[in-house]
Records
---
Amino acid sequence: MANFFLDNKDLQYQLRHPLMRKIVELKERGFEDKDKFDYAPVNFEDAMENYEKVLEIVGGICGDVLAPNAESVDHEGPHVVDDHVIYAEGTQRNHQALIDAGVYGIALPRQYGGLNFPMVPYVMTCDLISRADAGFANIWGLQDCAETLNEFASEEQKQEFLTQIQYGKTCAMDLTEPDAGSDLQKVMLRATWDEEKGTWLLNGVKRFITNGDGDISLVLARSEDGTSDGRGLSMFVYDRKHMAVKVRRIENKLGIKGSPTCELVFTNAPAQLVGARKMGLIKYVMSLMNSARLGIGAQSAGVCEAAYREALKYAHEREQFGHPIIEFPAMYEMLTNMKAKVYATRALLYETTRFVDVYKAYAHISNDRKLTPEEKDEMKQYQKLADGYTPLLKLMSSEYSNSLAYDSLQIHGGSGFMKDYPIERIYRDARITTIYEGTSQLQVVAAIKAVTTGLFAAQMQEYEKNAPKAEMQHLMDTLIQMREQYQQAVEAVQALNDGKLLDFHARRLVEMAGHIIMGHLLLHQASEVDEYAISAETYIKEGKTLNTARWEYIRDFKPEHINMFEYIKGEFTE
C-alpha cells in the first residue's frame, strides 16, 4: 500500500520545524480545549502526534485512492446534468474516501466540527493531494473559503456554514466574470436587497469559477448603485440548496480536467452579506486570494514532487545503448537539478506557511482579548513577512512546477508525449499554476514592494546569522555575495527614479530575491540533515549564475537604447 506522507522525508522534516512549537501553542491557546473535546491535544507532543496521524491517513488515501483514479478522472471529467455539475466517478470516490476518513475541515475550530489544525499540516494535505491529482487538489483546497468565513463571518453564519464542511460540503469562490478577470474592480454581478423577502438577491454571470457548483460559495458582487470600482463591491455567501444558480457550461480545459471550471448564471439567488458592505474586494477578497495563493504554492509543490518521481522512475527503467538512462550525465544532471528545485519549492512553501500561521493565530486571539504590545509587534512582523513571501512563493513554485514537468517529460522522450505515462497529464496540469489566482506577472507586482522596502534584504541578513556547518561556509559566503549583488541591483533600478523602469526590471529583482532566500532555506536544512547537502550546493550555484546574468542586464541597461513599447506597438499596427 502506497503512502505519500510516509514515503516523503522532506514533508516530515518540515513538520518538525522548531517554530511549530510556537505555532501550536498559539493555536491551542494553552490547550484550553482539552477539557471540552476528548480529541483535543493535551500538550505539544500530543498535537504533533495528531498531525502525523492525520497526514498518514491522507497520505494513504492519496497513494491508494486518488493517484490510481487520476487517469480515469482526467479522461472522464465532470459534466453538466440539469444545469448542475456531476463529478467524474473517480472524483466522487476520492471525495467520499476523504469524507469517510473524517479529514475535511481539519483547519477549522473544534466548535464547528474541525480539528483546529494550524495551516502547516493543512497545507501539507494540499501538497500530498496535489502530488496524487492536481485537479482534485482544487476541490480539496477550496476549504480556504471556510477559513475566510471563519475570519470574517458572523457567529450565526459560522454555525450555519462551517459546520457543514466536516461532512464534505464543497466550496467555491465566485469572483471572476467575462469582463473582470485579474481586474476585479470591474465585477458587475448585482446584489440587491429585497425588503419583502428580507434577503440579498444576486443576479448576473460569473466565469472561470473553479468548482463553480460548490455547496457553499463566496460571491463578490456589486452592492452599491452608481459605483464602478472596488469600493462598490461586497462579499456574499450563497448556499447551493437554493438552486438559484445554473451552470451554463463547464470549460474544456488543457489540464486539471477533473476540477470543473464553470460559467454560472445567478437568477435572484438569495445570499447573505459577509462582514461589512463595500469591503468585499478591499479586505475580504485580498485575504481569500492570499490563502488561495498559498494553496497554489502547495499544489505546485505537489506537481513538482510528482514530476520528479515520474522522471526518476522512468530514468531507472528505460535502457538505451545497454544502460539505464539515469547513468548518462545529461540525465543525472537534470534529475539533480530537479530534486534541488523540489526541495527549494517546499522549503519556501513551509517557511511562508509558518509566517501565515503565526500572524493568523495572533489575529484570532485578538478577537477574544487585547494583545500585548510585544504580541502586536510580532503579529505585524509576521504579517509583513507573509505578505511579502506569499506572492514570491506563488511565482517561484508555479514556475518550477512547469519547468520540472517540462524536464520530466523530456526525460521520458517520445513516451512522455503519449498518454501511456502519467507525465503527459502532469505536464498539462502544471500549466495553469502560473496563471490562476494571479499570473506570474501579477505576483511580481505584488512582491516588488518587499524588494523596494528592503523586507527581503533584511530577512536575508537574518538568515545569514545562522552559521552553517564548517564545510558549507563557502555556500554562505556565496549567498552573502549574492545578497550584496542583489542590493546593488535594487539601488541601480531605484536610482533611475522611473516607475515604468522599476516595473520593467521588477521580475529580475524578485527572482534574484527568490534564489537567495530559497538558497538560504536549503543551506539551513543541509546543515541539519545531510540529505539536503547536494541539493543546497546545486541550487545555490545555479542561483548565483542566474542572478549574475540579471545583475549584468540591469547594470548595463540604458533606457535610451530602446523603446520597447513603441517597437512592439509598431509591430502590431503594421
Note: The first strand starts at residue 79 and ends at 81.
---
Amino acid sequence: MKRLLFNILPFIVFAIAAFVYMAIRYQDLMYVVQMQDMFRYDVSYFLQMIIEPGFMLRYVGSFLGQFAFHPMLGILLFVALLILLAWLLKWGFKISAEATSIALIPSLLIMMYVSGWDYNVFAMRHYGNLFSPIVGCLTMASLAAWYVRIGCRWMRYVWTILVIAIGYPLVGIYAFGTVVMALLHDIFESKRFDWIMAVMAVVLAVAVPFIASRYFFVKFNTMFLASAGLPYLDFGEDANIKTPLYIAIVATVLIPVAGKLLNMLKYDRMRLIVSAALTLIVMILVPIKANSDSNFRTLLAIEHAYEDGEDDRVFDLCLQEKNPIRSIIQYRNIELFRRNQLLDHMFNYSWVSSDIKCNGFCSNTWITASRVYFKHGFFNFAYRWAMERSVRYKYSNIDTKMMAAASVYNQEKVLAERYLSLLDNTLYYKDCAKDIRKLYDKELMHNDNLYQRHRQIAFVPKGAIDNTEMCEYMLMKHFMNLQVTSVQRNDLSIANAMVAANQDVFWKLCLARYQQNPNQPLPKHVQEAALLFAFLKQNPQLYNQIKLMVGPEGEVCQQFERIQDIIVRLLTQPMDSDVNTLLSICPGTYWSYFFYDARQPMVFD
C-alpha cells in the first residue's frame, strides 16, 4: 500500500496543482494562443506542414491547440499530456516508487516555458507551439521505452535506423534525443557501450538531415537542420523564455541517468528526499520565472473578452492598469466612445503609458492595429494589418476572421469568400463564418452597429485617410483633420484635438458644436479645455464669452476660478509643487492632463 501511494501520489498532487494554477493564470493565454493559430481540416493545411522536417509535431500540436478555444478544456488536455509524459518516463525506465517525482521535472519545465511567454504571442509563427514540445517529449519517452524492452541486439540496430531515418522527417531532433536516451540506458543499466550502435547513430544523424533537406524538404533552410521540430520562438534574444524548453528536452533525455542514480541510493528515504527536493525546486521556479507583467495579462483578457463578445467587460479590465501600455489606453477610449462617455471621462484616467516589455519584434500597432481600426470602422486598414501579420507569419483564426469581416463590410464578396472558406474548415470558427455571411443581407448590414459607426466616423472620400505605420498617430491626425458632419465624428475629433493640445482645431470644433446645439451643455472635459484655452489667450472678453458658453454658475467654471492662481504660476514659473497641488485638487480633469500627462513623452509605436 505504501509503495502504491508513492507511485501515485506525486502524479495526483501535480495534476491538481498544475490544473488549478493554470486555470487561475492562463485561461486567457490559452485562448489567445489558439486564436493566433489555425488548424484546418483540409489537405492544403497538411501539405503546408510537410515542407519542413518535424512537421508531424507542428501538425499534431496545432490540432491539439484548437481545443483551447474552450480554455478549461485546453488546460485539462495540457495537464493530462504532462501527466502522461511523466508516467511514460517512470514506467519506461523503471524508476523506483520513492523516486517517482523525478519523472515530473520535464513536465514542470514545459509549464515554465509556457508561463514565460510575452507579447510576442501576438506576433509569432505558432504552428502548435503550445503542445508540440509535449508531443515531442512523449515521442522520445515512448520510443525509448520500446527500445528498453527489445531483447535482440540486431533488432535494436533496426530500431535505431528506423527512429532516425523515419523519425527525423516526422519529429525532427527529438529522434536524435530518443537514440541518446537509449544509449544512456545501456550505459547506466547494462554497464556496456554499444560502439556499433553509437557509430551507426552518428552516421545517420549526419546523413539523414542532409538527404532529407536535399531531396524531400527542398524549401527548408538548412541552417535550421539542427533545430528541426522545435517550436518557432519569435522572442528575440530572450533566453529566459527559450531556456526552460531546452532544459526540458535535456531533462527528458537524462531521465534514464537520473532514474538509475536514484535507484542506486541505499535507503528508500534518501531516494524519496532527493527526488522530492529536486522536483520541489523546479516546481517553485515555475511561478517565479513566469511573466509577471500585469499589462500583458490584461491585454490577453481584453482580447479574450472581445472575441467572446463581452465588450462591456473590456472597460473594467482596462481600468485595472495604473500604468497601462498604449494598446490598453486605446481600448479604454474605444469603450468610452461606445458608451458616449468619451468627452466626460477620458481624462479621469492616466495617459502616461508604460513600454511593452519584450525583446522581440513587437509594438502596440503590430499587436492591436487591426482590431483598433476595425472598432473605429476603418475596414480597409483593419484588413491591411491583418494581412501584414498573415504574410509575415501565417494565417491565424483572428486575422482570417478580421479579413473576412472587413471584406464583407466593404462589399467584396469574392474576396470575403476566400477567407470564409478557410474558417469553414476549422472546428470552432465555422459558426463565426456563418455569422459573417449574414451581413451579405443589405438590410442586416445597414442595421449593424459597426457598419453604422463606419458610416458615421470613417466613411470619407477615397484617399482622404493618411497611411502611417503607427495606428494611434494615424487616427489622431485623421480625426483632427476631418470634416465634421455628425456628433460621433465631432466627439472623436474634439477628443484628439484635446489630447494633442491643438487649440486651433479645438476652437473650430467646439464652437461649431455649440452653435449647432446651443441649448445642450458641452461635455465636462470640453468645458474644462475651453476655459483653459480661453484663459491662455489672455483675452478677457473672449474668456467671459466662454464662461457664458459653459455656464458661469456651473461646477466646472467655479472650480476653474478657484485654481486660476495655480494656473498662472504654472504658465509663468512652473514648479513641481504647483503641479502636485493641481493634481491633488483637480484629479481627473483636462487641466491635470494638460499640465502633467501632456508634458510626458507620448511615444507612438
Note: Residues 2-289 form one domain.
